[in-house]
From TrEMBL:
Residue ranges crossing the lipid bilayer per the database entry: 44-65
Keywords: Membrane, Signal, Transmembrane, Transmembrane helix
Domain M23ase beta-sheet core intervals: 265-359
Protein name from the UniProt record: M23 family metallopeptidase
MF terms (GO), sorted A to Z: metalloendopeptidase activity
Pfam families: Peptidase_M23
Matching InterPro entries: Cell_wall_metabolism_enzyme (IPR050570), Dup_hybrid_motif (IPR011055), M23ase_b-sheet_dom (IPR016047)
Length: 387
C-alpha cells in the first residue's frame, strides 16, 4: 500500500513538471501560435530519459566488460607467472637431483673400486644397494615437486650411508697400516713419511679410481696410499729361506777371517750345503745383477724395492738373468764355492739403503710379519686377477 502511495506521489510530481505552453512565432507580419501540451512534453522527456538511461546502461556495461577483461588478463598473466615459476623450480630440482645422483654414482664407483682392488674382498651388500639406489634415482623422471623432494631425501640418505662406509673403510685400512708398521718395526725398519719429498702435482688416478674431491674421501685415499706403501714394504722383506736344509756356518758381524785370521766384519750369513743345491729368492723383486764380483765370486743381487737388496754369493751357476722379475721362493742360482771361499756354501746378505743388516731379523720374522705378508700377498693376487 505504501509502495503504491509513493508511486502515485512520484507520478504526481512528474506530471507537475510539465504544463501546457504556447509559443508565439512571428514570420514576416504573420504571427502564429505553437502549443506544447504537457502530455507531449512528458512523452518527449520520457523518450529522452529512456535514451539517456539506455546510453548510461550501455556505457556502464562497456566499462564493466573492459574492467572484467582486464582483470581476466591480469589473472591469466599471474597464473602464467606461477606456472612459469613452478616449471623453473621443477627444472632446478630435476637438475639438482641429476647433480646429486652423478656425485653419488662417482662416489659409489670409487668405493667399490677401493673395496675390490685394495681390500681384496667383494663389495658389501650395503654398498651395492647404495649404488643401485643412486643409479635408479638418476634414471627416474621427475613429474612433480613432491616426488623430486622425496628423491632428494632418498639420495641424501644414500650419501650418508656412503660416508659411513667411507669412514668404516678408512678405519679398517688405518688398522691394516698399523699392523704393517708394527711388523716392520719388529724387524728394525722404521717406515718413512712423506717428508723430504716433492715434484710437480699430478692428480692421482690409481687403477682408474679418481677419489671425489671431498675431505672424507681424500682421507680415505691417503689412508690407502699409506697402507699400500707399508704393505709393499712388508712384502719386500726377505723372509723366505733362500735354500732348503741350510746349516749356519758363520753369523753376521765381527769374526776371525778364515784366510788371514785377523778380525773382520762379516756382512751376511754363511750356510753350508751340497754343491749345486738350489738357491731361492728371499722375496719378490727384480734381478739387478747376475755375474762376478771380487771376493764374492758368482753373485746374484735382487732389488726388492724400498732400498732393500739381497745378495747371494759364491754360486756355482745362475738360474736367472739381470732384469728378470722373480717371486718369493723362485729358483735363481745354485750353491757353489767361487770367489774368496773355503768350501761350498751360500753367502747371504741383506742391505737396506746400501747398509748391510743382519739377515736373521728377516729370516726369523715373527708371526705378525708373516701374517701381514700373507694378507698383502693375497690382496695383490686378487687385484692382479681382477685385471
Amino acid at each position: 500500500m505504501q509502495v503504491l502511495q509513493r508511486l502515485t506521489a512520484l507520478s504526481t510530481r512528474w506530471n507537475a513538471l510539465f504544463r501546457d505552453h504556447e509559443i508565439f512565432v512571428r514570420t514576416g507580419g504573420d504571427v502564429r501560435f505553437i502549443r506544447l501540451s504537457a502530455q507531449v512534453q512528458r512523452r518527449v522527456a520520457t523518450v529522452v530519459s529512456l535514451a539517456l538511461g539506455a546510453w548510461l546502461i550501455f556505457t556502464i556495461g562497456m566499462l564493466a566488460y573492459q574492467a572484467a577483461t582486464a582483470w581476466q588478463r591480469q589473472d591469466v598473466a599471474a597464473r602464467a607467472a606461477i606456472v612459469e615459476r613452478a616449471e623453473a623450480r621443477v627444472a632446478r630440482e630435476s637438475g639438482r637431483i641429476e647433480h646429486i645422483a652423478e656425485r653419488l654414482d662417482a662416489r659409489q664407483k670409487y668405493l667399490e673400486g677401493v673395496v675390490t682392488q685394495h681390500l681384496g674382498v667383494e663389495v658389501e651388500a650395503d654398498a651395492k644397494a647404495a649404488g643401485d639406489a643412486a643409479a635408479a634415482a638418476a634414471r627416474a623422471t621427475s613429474p612433480t615437486l613432491p616426488a623430486d623432494a622425496d628423491k632428494i631425501s632418498v639420495l641424501r640418505a644414500i650419501g650418508q650411508r656412503q660416508e659411513q662406509l667411507a669412514v668404516a673403510m678408512t678405519a679398517a685400512i688405518t688398522e691394516r697400516s698399523a699392523r704393517a708398521e708394527s711388523a716392520l718395526r719388529a724387524v728394525g725398519i722404521r717406515p718413512g713419511s712423506t717428508a723430504n719429498q716433492g715434484g710437480p702435482f699430478i692428480p692421482a688416478n690409481r687403477d682408474g679410481l679418481l677419489p671425489p674431491r671431498e675431505p672424507l674421501f681424500q682421507r680415505l685415499d691417503a689412508a690407502i696410499d699409506r697402507m699400500e706403501f707399508l704393505e709393499n714394504l712388508v712384502l719386500s722383506l726377505p723372509s723366505t729361506i733362500p735354500a732348503a736344509g741350510m746349516n749356519l756356518s758363520s753369523g753376521f758381524g765381527y769374526r776371525r777371517d778364515p784366510f788371514t785370521g785377523a778380525g773382520a766384519m762379516h756382512a751376511g750369513l754363511d750356510f753350508k750345503g751340497p754343491h749345486g743345491s738350489p738357491i731361492y729368492s728371499a722375496a719378490a723383486g727384480t734381478i739387478s745383477f747376475a755375474g762376478r764380483k771380487a771376493g764374492y765370486g758368482n753373485v746374484v743381487e735382487v732389488d726388492h724395492g724400498h732400498g732393500i737388496i739381497t745378495r747371494y754369493a759364491h754360486l756355482s751357476g745362475f738360474a736367472a738373468r739381470a732384469g728378470q722379475r722373480v717371486a718369493p721362493g723362485q729358483l735363481i742360482a745354485r750353491m757353489g764355492s767361487t770367489g774368496r771361499s773355503t768350501g761350498t756354501h751360500l753367502h747371504f746378505e741383506v742391505r737396506v739403503n746400501g747398509t748391510a743388516v743382519n739377515p736373521r731379523r728377516f729370516l726369523e720374522s715373527n708371526s705378525d710379519v708373516l701374517e701381514v705378508q700373507a694378507d698383502a700377498g693375497e690382496r695383490v693376487r686378487t687385484r692382479a686377477g681382477a685385471r
